[in-house]
């Protein structure tokens, strides 16, 4: 479409220049053959008095590719010997045929004929409205001055409204819209608040984010509370930082924990307030502490026949209670007080205090369970598995246990080796 319009303009311009050149050549030849004809036979042209039109007489010197422009007053006259006049319109007007911006006076006749500039209507401001503009059935830009006959169909954008039911407008010959262009106004929107979090279960010492999104009009202010207390920053039993953001559909208020701690557990409430009304919603978070089996040292020693062997399993834990289970390959082991003995779980001094309170500890405590094998033989070789778990996680340590006969000085002893293989931590 654009390329076709450009070719049409180019062709018309070339034709006009050819006509202009022919007129100049003809006038010069006539004048050279009979100079007196300029005064006696060739008629002048009157510059028409048309609303919105401006005129400029061109003056070009020989060999100069640039021409000077001299303003012409409407009602004045110019010689009819090929005077070239540039056409222009006032700011709020437009030429009827935008492809022609020059005319020539030859023997009292303007060629092409001078037509009055047309009035235009102001552009449509689409801030609060969705608008479509057409002229002669073709879509045109709404943010430029509109030609006479331009049709506008509009409607309010989401979140805006207006009482006026008319949704069609036209640009009239007077340069005014049929109806004064309107802007929609913000509609009152009910408040709503939503809370989200960066992970389902916050783990102690890890990064965690709570965010609150507010919607409504007027735009609400958001405030976080923890256990009924307004949050302004890292203070008291709160280690996070409050940060303001703003998205296209409303404000966002974040709480960012770089390394969340157990005391950050609690009920968080987000309040939205826009002076017309308030709305709030809450979420309760519990900071969780996973278990971790810590003994990873290998063991190698020689023991006498019919001896017992202790296989330890040491666990670091930040949240009680915990349990420890033992397996031989995939078969669970139980204390039979003869061949197999499993000690009760023993924790350090902080464990008792944690268990009596909230069962949350600010620092990891150490707990241990020991598997004791009595009257060992080579048949006790194999893979032993220690499984430690609490309410939020489970950790497994696989250990390769080998027993070999060693004969020395007529006695049969055993050489045992214990090698940790791998961990497998799982969040429940």
Structure commentary:
The protein is mainly β and 428 residues long. The protein has three helices and 35 strands. A hairpin with a 4-residue loop joins strand 23 and strand 24. Residues 351-360 have low confidence and may be disordered.
Please outline the helices and strands.
Layout: H1 2-33, H2 37-40, E1 45-46, E2 53-59, E3 68-72, E4 77-78, E5 81-89, E6 93-94, E7 102-106, E8 109-111, E9 118-121, E10 129-135, E11 138-140, E12 146-147, E13 151-156, E14 160-161, E15 168-170, E16 185-186, E17 189-197, E18 208-217, E19 221-226, E20 229-230, E21 241-247, E22 250-257, E23 266-273, E24 278-285, E25 291-293, E26 299-304, E27 309-319, E28 323-328, E29 331-332, E30 340-342, E31 346-347, H3 350-356, E32 360-373, E33 382-389, E34 393-408, E35 411-427
Antiparallel strand pairs: 1-4, 2-3, 2-5, 5-7, 6-9, 7-8, 9-12, 10-11, 10-13, 13-15, 14-16, 17-18, 18-22, 19-20, 19-23, 21-22, 23-24, 25-27, 26-35, 27-32, 28-29, 28-33, 30-32, 31-32, 33-34, 34-35
Name the helicity range.
Answer: 10-25%
Distance between the termini: 64 Å
Helix run count: 3
List the strand order in the largest sheet: 26-35-34-33-28-29
Total strands: the figure is 35
């Amino acid at each position: 479409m654009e390329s076709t319009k450009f070719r049409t303009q180019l062709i018309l311009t070339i034709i006009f220049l050819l006509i202009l050149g022919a007129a100049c050549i003809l006038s010069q030849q006539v004048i050279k053959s009979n100079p007196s004809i300029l005064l006696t036979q060739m008629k002048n042209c009157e510059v028409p008095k048309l609303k919105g039109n401006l005129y400029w007489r061109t003056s070009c010197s020989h060999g100069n590719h640039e021409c000077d422009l001299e303003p012409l007053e409407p009602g004045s006259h110019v010689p009819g010997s090929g005077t070239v006049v540039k056409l222009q319109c006032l700011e709020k007007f437009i030429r009827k045929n935008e492809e022609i911006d020059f005319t020539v006076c030859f023997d009292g006749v303007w060629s092409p004929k001078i037509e009055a500039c047309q009035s235009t209507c102001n552009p449509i401001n689409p801030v609060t409205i969705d608008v479509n503009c057409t002229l002669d059935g073709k879509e045109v830009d709404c943010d430029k001055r509109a030609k006479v006959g331009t049709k506008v169909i509009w409607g309010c954008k989401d979140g805006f409204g207006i009482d006026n039911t008319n949704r069609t407008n036209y640009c009239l010959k007077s340069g005014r819209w049929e109806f004064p262009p309107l802007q929609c106004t913000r509609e009152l929107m009910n408040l709503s608040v939503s809370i989200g979090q960066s992970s389902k279960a916050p783990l102690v010492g890890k990064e965690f984010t709570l965010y609150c999104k507010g919607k409504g009009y007027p735009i609400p202010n958001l405030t976080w509370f923890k256990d009924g207390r307004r949050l302004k920053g890292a203070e008291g039993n709160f280690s996070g930082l409050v940060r303001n953001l703003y998205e296209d559909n409303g404000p966002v208020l974040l709480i960012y924990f770089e390394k969340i701690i157990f005391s950050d557990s609690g009920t968080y409430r987000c309040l939205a307030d826009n002076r017309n009304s308030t709305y709030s919603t809450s979420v309760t978070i519990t900071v969780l502490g996973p278990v971790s089996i810590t003994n990873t040292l290998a063991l190698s020693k020689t023991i006498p026949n019919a001896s017992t062997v202790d296989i330890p399993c040491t666990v670091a834990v930040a949240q009680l209670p915990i349990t420890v289970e033992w397996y031989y390959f995939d078969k669970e082991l139980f204390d039979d007080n003869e061949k197999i003995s499993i000690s009760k779980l023993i924790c350090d001094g902080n464990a008792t205090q944690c268990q009596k309170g909230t069962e949350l500890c600010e620092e990891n405590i150490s707990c241990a369970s020991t598997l004791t094998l009595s009257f060992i033989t080579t048949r006790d070789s194999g893979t032993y598995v220690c499984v430690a778990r609490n309410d939020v996680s489970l950790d497994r340590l696989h250990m390769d246990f080998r027993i070999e006969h060693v004969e020395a000085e007529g006695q049969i002893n055993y050489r045992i080796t214990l090698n940790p293989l791998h961990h497998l931590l799982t969040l429940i």
